[in-house]
Amino acid sequence: MEKVAVSLEKIDLDYDEEADVLYISFGKPRQAKDSVEVEDGIIYRIADNEIVGITITNFKARTLKKQSGL
Fold it and tell me: What total number of domains does the chain contain?
């Protein structure tokens, strides 16, 4: 994967409890032109060679798993 930049001027978090998905957006909201799944259920959203957001599926399950040490 080629290097991409991340703008940390503004970070927005949005959690969909029903779907158990966390959406993280960097900078002003933009439409992603591409996405890369860097790990099972962790997706980088990319536009103009910059990461504009990250989507994490099964977020609550992942968090509980780490807290319990599993």
Answer: 1
